[in-house]
Amino acid sequence: MPKGRRVGLFVTCLVDLYRPQIGFAAVKLLEEAGCRVEVPRLQTCCGQPAYNSGDRADATAIARQVIAAFQGFDYVVAPSGSCTGMLKVHYPALFAGDAAMLEAAEDLSRRTFELISFLTDVCGLEAVEATYPGLVTYHDSCSGLRELGVKAQPRHLLQTVAGLSLTELPGAETCCGFGGTFCVKYPAISEEMTQKKAADIVASGADTLLAGDLGCLLNMAGRLSRNGARVAVRHVAEVLADQGGEPAIGEPAAKKKSRR
Amino acid sequence: MSSARDRILGSLRRSLGREELSGEAKAALEARLAHPTANLTPARSQLPHAGQVELFIRMAERIDVTVARIPGRDEVPGAVADYLASHNLPTEFRMSPDPFLDAIPWERRPLLKFARGRAEPADLVGVTPAFAAVAETATLMMVSGPERPATLNFMPDTHIVVLESRAIVGTYEEGFARLRTARNAGTDGRYMPRTVNLITGPSRTADIALTLILGAHGPRRLHVVLVDGEES
Amino acid sequence: MQVSSHDFKARADKALHDPNLRQALSAMEKGFVSKRQAAVRDLPEFDALRDRAVEIKNHVLENLDHYLERFETQVLAQGGKVHWCASPKEARETILALLRTVEARTCTKGKSMIAEEIALNPFLAANGIEPVETDLGEYIIQLADEPPSHIIGPAVHKTKDQISDLFLEHHQKYGRTARQTDPQALVNEAREILRQKYIDADAGITGANFLIAETGSTVIVTNEGNGDLTQMLPRMHIVIASLEKIVPTIEDACTILRVLARSATGQEFSAYTTFSTGPKREADLDGPAAFHVVLLDNGRSAMIGTELQEALRCIRCGACMNHCPVYQAVGGHAYGWVYPGPIGAVLDPHFVGLEEARHLPSASTFCGRCEQVCPMRIPLPKIMRYWRQQAFERKLAPPPERMAVQLWAWLVRRPALYHFATRIAAYLLGRFGAERGYFRRLPLAGGWTRGRDMPAPSGRTFHDLWRTSGRGRGEAE
Question: How many CB pairs under 8 A join A and C?
Answer without folding.
Answer: 239
